[in-house]
Automatic annotation (TrEMBL):
The lineage of its organism: Bacteria, Pseudomonadati, Pseudomonadota, Alphaproteobacteria, Hyphomonadales. Pfam families: Acyl_transf_3 (PF01757). The keyword Transmembrane helix applies. It comes from Hirschia litorea. Its EC number is 2.3.-.-. This is Acyltransferase family protein. GO terms for molecular function: acyltransferase activity. It comes from the Bacteria.
Length: 366
């Protein structure tokens, strides 16, 4: 199977932009600089959530298209997805909870009940929020994996179930749902998985020159919607904006993969390394930024360094934390679970097409 290194590089860029977004919209203005951020344009970074949902849809079809309708493969698929999502998430969540006990300001006013602990560790969708804020996106990922697992188990009924699900999600574009649980289950966010799946089915039809045009079109749609939303000139509601982002992201992914197939795209190794660590970076960057902001505030460094240089320092620190977490925790966990559940002596190297999880939407930020 083709190694999708170009997507690793784009994933790294998107992950860094997500980190910059959180620094710019929350940590700088609310914790360090009394309402002042670095660059307003960085605030469109929340749209990375749509990009990574599209990427998840693409990767599931790209990897598992031949497994569809093969029920004997569904248990392995489900186990691999669970092991990919939960172990590192549990480690980071537990570390975050322990840190809250010793440094209460990290967790603000969080005082979870036993039921809320269970909700957070299981990722089961309920009305309460997530202690590790970025975990809301993992709930969408798990929901999509359940739907895709049904497609592997039975192609006919899986397609019917997906058709009904995506149709119901499309209805919410016109009639948003008030109930938070049903709003998540039928969110327009779920339609982005469909966009990504379709891009995986059609990318092989593109020619070399077409791939550049498709990438350019996808990026133009993606950033045009982002800038219009930033300037509050986007004419439609949040659901349509979300779908527009998903279409732009899926076109970009489709064009990049087609271009790589023709040997037209090559990404630098250092950027791929950051892409490899993207899930770890996603999970740890908010707690790391909270610690950074507390230290900077106590030392008074925010009175000596301006917002933009501080943003650069925070971004570099977050990337380093993600890389350290990836190599010291994530890769050993992958290696261990492969041995325990698949009798594998694999090196623990993360597949280059692994799923990355998206950033925190501004409405869900701490």
């Amino acid at each position: 199977m083709q190694q999708l290194s170009s997507l690793q590089a784009v994933r790294a860029i998107a992950a860094i932009f997500v980190v910059v977004f959180h620094i710019n919209i929350y940590f700088l203005p609310e914790r360090l600089y009394n309402g002042e951020s670095a660059v307003e344009l960085f605030n469109i970074g929340y749209a990375g959530v749509e990009f990574f949902f599209a990427l998840s849809g693409f990767i599931m079809v790209y990897i598992h298209q031949k497994d569809i309708g093969t029920p004997e493969k569904v248990s392995r698929f489900a186990l691999k997805r669970v092991l990919r999502i939960y172990p590192l998430y549990w480690v980071v969540l537990t570390a975050f909870i322990l840190a809250m006990w010793f440094v209460p300001s990290i967790g603000a006013s969080l005082d979870p009940t036993t039921l809320e602990y269970a909700h957070n560790y299981s990722l089961f969708p309920v009305h309460t929020g997530m202690m590790l804020e970025v975990a809301w996106t993992l709930q969408y990922e798990m929901l999509f994996y359940i739907a895709f697992g049904l497609l592997i188990f039975t192609k006919r009924f899986g397609l019917i179930a997906m058709g009904i699900w995506f149709s119901a999600c499309a209805i919410t574009l016109f009639r948003p749902i008030e109930n938070s649980v049903f709003a998540m289950l039928l969110s327009p966010n779920n339609l982005i998985f469909l966009c990504g799946m379709l891009s995986a089915l059609y990318f092989k039809r593109l020619q070399a020159i077409d791939s550049y045009l498709v990438v350019a079109s996808g990026l133009a749609i993606f950033f045009a919607i982002g800038i219009a939303d930033l300037n509050k000139t986007f004419p439609l509601n949040e659901g349509w904006r979300t779908l527009g982002f998903g279409i732009g992201a899926s076109l970009t992914i489709m064009g990049l993969v087609a271009g790589e197939a023709f040997g037209k795209i090559k990404s630098p190794a250092w950027l791929n390394r950051i892409g490899d660590s993207s899930y770890a970076l996603y999970l740890v960057h908010l707690p790391v930024l909270m610690v950074f902001s507390i230290l900077v505030s106590k030392l008074g460094l925010n009175t000596l360094i301006g917002p933009l240089p501080m943003l650069i320092v925070f971004t570099i620190g977050s990337v380093i934390a993600g890389l350290v977490t990836h190599y010291l925790i994530e890769k050993p966990l992958i290696k261990l679970t492969q041995r325990l559940f698949f009798n594998s002596s694999a090196s623990g190297q993360v597949p280059i097409v692994k799923v990355f999880h998206p950033p925190l939407h501004p409405s869900e930020r701490p």
